[in-house]
Amino acid sequence: MSDKKPSGLEDVVVAQSSICYIDGQRGQLVYRGYDIDDLVENASFEEVAWLLWHGDLPTQSELDGLKADLAHSMVLPDHLLDLLKTLPFDANPMRVLSIGAAAMGTLDPAADDMSGEANNAKAVRLTAQLPLIMNAWHRISSDMTPIAPDVTESLAYNMLYCMNGEVPDPYAVETMDAALILHADHELNASTFSARVTAATLSDLHSAVVSAINTLKGPLHGGANEAVMKMLEEIGEVDNAADYVENAVANKKKIMGFGHRVYKAKDPRAVILERMSEELGKRAGNTKWFQMTHAVEEAFQPKVIEKQLFPNVDFYSASAYQVMGIPHSLFTPIFACSRVVGWTAHLLEQYANNRLFRPSSDYIGETGRKYAPIGER
Ligand code: COA
Question: 10 Å Cβ neighbour count for 352?
Fold first, then answer.
C-alpha cells in the first residue's frame, strides 16, 4: 500500500458551472453572482430556489407561480404514506428520505421524461415533498399522525409546523429560512458531485437525487451537524468545553463542524448561523448550547490555526436547531431538504451539457499472477 494520502479529487476541476462560486481564502460564497449575505438579508428560500434553478431572481409573477406550484405539490401521495408505515420505526431518517425520493420516482409518470420542462417540474415537487416525507416519517415513527402543511405559508414555516402542528415562532421561521438559503448550494460538494455523476450516465433526476441523499448522509458531509450535537451533549456544560477540546486534541479526535476542503477561512455560513444561534438562544432564554459551541471554538481555534481549520456550516446550525426544539435525527434531513434545490439546479445544468464522468485510478496492485488450483493456495 502507498503511504500517499488519496487526492480525494482536491483542486481537480471536473465541470464548468454558472451556479455557485466559493472563494475559500476569503470565506466568500456566491449564488449566481449574489453574495450569500445579501440573499440571507433580503431574499426568501423560494426566491433563492428560483435563482438557482433559472439563473436570475424571479419577477413577482414568477415567484407567485413558483409558490402556487409548490403549494400544489405539498401533499404526499397515499402510496408513499403507506410505504412509510411499513418501515421499521428505528430506521435512519436519511435512509427513509432516500426511499421516499426513490418512491416519488416510481409514482411520477414523467420520471423518465428528460426534457428541461419535466425536470424543472420534478425539482419543484421534490423541494415541496422531501420536507413532508421527513416530517411524516418523524411523526409515523413516533406513533403520531402526520400533519398536513399550511400551503399558504412558506417552506421554512412548514418545515417547523409539520413537525409538531404548532404555529412556529416568527424568529424561528426567519432562522429556518436563512438556514435553508445557506445550505441550498455549495458548488461541487460530495453529494452534488455524486448527483452529477449519476445524471451523467443519463439516469433520471430522481435517481440522481437518491445518490445525493445517500452521499450527504455521511458524518464527513451533511451528517456532521448531528455529530456536533452529539459532541455538545457529551460536553454537557460550558465549563467542560476546554477540557473536552484538550482531550480531543491529545487523542487526535476530530472536532465535528470544524474544517473544510475548500474554506481556509471561517465559513461565511457559520458566521451568519453563529449570529442567529446566539439570538435564538437569547430569545428562548437558553443560551447554553450557543455558549458551549462558542467555547469549543475559542478553545480549538488557536490549536488548529496552522492547519487552517475553521468552523463550518454545521458548527452553529446544531445549537440553532437544538434551541428550535428540532429532534437531532432531523438535522441532516433538513440539510437535504434545502440542498435538493442545489442538487436539482446542478442536474439541470448537467443534462443540458452532458458528458459521462469516468476518472482513472493509479493501479498499485499485483501484476503477472497465475491462477493456482484451490488446493495449492
Ligand atoms: N478536527 C480535527 N482535525 C481536523 C479536522 C477536525 N474537524 N478536520 C481536519 N482535520 C485535520 C486532519 O486530521 C488533517 O491533519 P493532518 O494533516 O495532520 O493529517 C488535516 O486537518 C487535513 O484534514 P483532511 O481530512 O485531509 O481534510 P479534508 O479536506 O479531506 O477534509 C473535512 C475535510 C470536512 C472532511 C474534515 O475537515 C472533517 O472531517 N471535518 C469534520 C466533519 C465536518 O465538520 N464535516 C462537515 C463539512 S461542511
Answer: 9
Q: Return the percentage of the chain with pLDDT > 90, whole number.
A: 98
Decide: residue 6, CB within 10 A, 0-12 exposed, 13-18 middle, 19+ buried: exposed
Which residue, 21, 126, 144, is CA-closest to 74?
126
Residue nearest to atom 2 of ligand 1 (CA): 254
Three-state DSSP at 30 gives strand
Q: Quick check: helix, strand or coil at residue 221?
A: coil
CA distance 35 to 29: 6
Determine if ligand 1 sits within 6 Å of the CB of residue 22: no
Mean pLDDT across 32-44 = 98
pLDDT band at 7; cut points 50, 70, 90: confident
Taking only the tens place, the pLDDT of each residue in 188-241 is: 999 999 999 999 999 999 999 999 999 999 999 999 999 999 999 999 999 999
235-283: pLDDT as tens digits? 999 999 999 999 999 999 999 999 999 999 999 999 999 999 999 999 9
Separation of alpha carbons 286 and 291, rounded Å: 10
pLDDT band at 2 (very low <50, low <70, confident <90, very high): low
- Look at residue 17 and tell me whether its pLDDT is greater than 80: yes
- Catalytic annotation on 267? no
Rounded CA gap, 36 and 26, in Å?
Answer: 13
> Does the global pTM surpass 0.90?
yes
Give the Cα separation of 308 and 251 in Å (integer). 20
* Count of C-beta atoms within a 10 Å radius of residue 15: 16
Nearest to 129 by CA among 180, 75, 78, 177: 75
- In degrees and rounded to multiples of 5, residue 237 shows phi and psi of -135, 150
Distance 237 CA to ligand 1 centre (A): 25
Q: Please tell me the distance between residue 3's alpha carbon and the centre of ligand 1 in angstroms.
A: 18
268 close to ligand 1 (CB < 6 Angstrom): no
For the Cβ of 313 lying below 6 angstroms from any atom of ligand 1, the answer is yes
Burial of 10 (0-12, 13-18, 19+ CB in 10 A): exposed
What is the CB-side half-sphere exposure of residue 226 using CA atoms within 13 A? Answer: 22
Where does 54-186 show beta strands of DSSP type E?
A: none
